[in-house]
Amino acid sequence: MKKVLVTGAAGFIGFHLAKRLLEKGVAVVGLDNLNDYYDVNLKLARLKQLEAMAGFSLVKADLADRQRIPELFAAEKFEVVVNLAAQAGVRYSIQNPQVYVDSNIQGFLNILEGCRHNGVGHLVYASTSSVYGANTKMPFSVHHNVDHPVSLYAATKKANELMAHTYASLYGLPCTGLRFFTVYGPWGRPDMALFLFTKAILEGRPIDVFNYGKMQRDFTFVDDIVEGIVRVMDRVPAPNPEWSGDSPDPATSYAPYRVYNIGNNQPVELLHFIEVLEDALGQKAAKNLLPIQAGDVPATYADVDDLMRDTGFKPATPIEVGIKRFVAWYREYYGV
User: Fold this and answer.
1) Which of 65, 82, 112, 187 has its CA 20 to 30 A from that of 104?
2) What is the pTM of this model?
3) What is the mean pLDDT of residues 314-323?
4) CA 130, CA 96: separation in Å to the nearest integer?
5) Residue 29's beta-bridge partner residues?
């Protein structure tokens, strides 16, 4: 790979991926609109690290910009595109649905069109474990049907998978979708549970624990997510010769299209997650036990057999290691 576009490069996963690619000597064009969904200073601090590395250039633009994005693709001629930019967050999608359509639908269409018209060899894009919605059969498999989302965020991500399949089918554009499972780690998002809990505990405030702590999440360390992305980038999907319209497999196709889960394959109960965090901080948490929120699901658990078979990689960082690394970063970054 010579030149890669990483959208959402100032974001949590985008920053870590761009850094990893730059360390490998790949030229990275990072696109971000630096919106204020969360603290812009954190995004700028991530970018400062990337801008200090050889081979990085930043384009400040919005994915939904129908003029700017085609111009960027025509000028740069990317070999691989990794689309990580999106309006994230299940709960926020209940208050601000419009933003999700602009970013996750219009923005993704602009990416697909850019790839189609400029000979991009492989589009890798972020989907989410949220697409499993009302499914309860565990572990969640990419071969399961996912037609019952419970948040607009999840619906837009499922739409991305469908849109990608259309472009793979119509134009032969190789597309790989990655369903991420609850990503955490250093430089993480301030709206995610680990960040919120850490901040509150250190400030001596109680934490909000939904579903009375009976949530289970397949917490996945960010380095494992990045390793999965990098391996998938190198593996351009081919049509599945055994695919049949009589019993259509959702994860593959007659077109160059694949979907993978990237998760730790080990669900953890939220109360245990909090215990591990308390140990890392050396402080106990006061808990507000609350009912489950609209749009949330009680459990996630990733089947990663396909990822393992095709890339030889399986996420395995235990939360004891990952949380400790997050806490060390948090204390250093905020000087706590």
Assistant:
1) 187
2) 0.96
3) 97
4) 17
5) 5, 57
Task: Please state, in angstroms and rounded to a whole number, the distance separating the CA atoms of residues 3 and 10.
Answer: 18
List, in sequence order, every residue forming a beta bridge with 257; answer none if it has no partner: 175
pLDDT at 141: 98
Categorise residue 119: left if φ over 0, alpha if ψ from -120 to 50, beta otherwise.
Answer: left
For residue 105, count other CB atoms closer than 10 A to its CB.
16
Q: What does the alpha-carbon distance between residue 194 and residue 180 come to, in Å, rounded to a whole number?
A: 16
The residue whose two tokens read 């204020």 is 36
65-to-26, 131, 292 alpha-carbon distances in Å: 26, 26, 36
CA distance 135 to 302: 12
Residue ranges of the alpha helices (H) in 77-221? 92-95, 97-100, 107-117, 152-171, 193-202
Paired residues of 220 in beta bridges: 183
Extract the tokens encoding 7: 């959208």
CA angle 167, 259, 179 (to 5 degrees): 115
Residues 194-221: tens digit of each pLDDT: 999 999 999 999 999 999 999 999 999 9
Q: For the chain, how many residues are written?
A: 336
pLDDT in tens, 1-40: 789 999 999 999 999 999 999 999 999 999 999 999 899 9
Percent of the chain with pLDDT over 90: 91
Residue pair 169/308 in contact (Cβ under 8 Å)? The answer is no
Contact (Cβ atoms closer than 8 angstroms) between residue 134 and residue 253: no
| Residue 330, amino acid | Y
Mean pLDDT of 280-305: 93
d(CA 5, CA 77): 9
Q: Which residues are annotated as catalytic?
A: 153
Distance of CA 208 to the CA centre of its chain: 24
Q: How far apart are CA 215 and CA 87, in angstroms?
A: 23
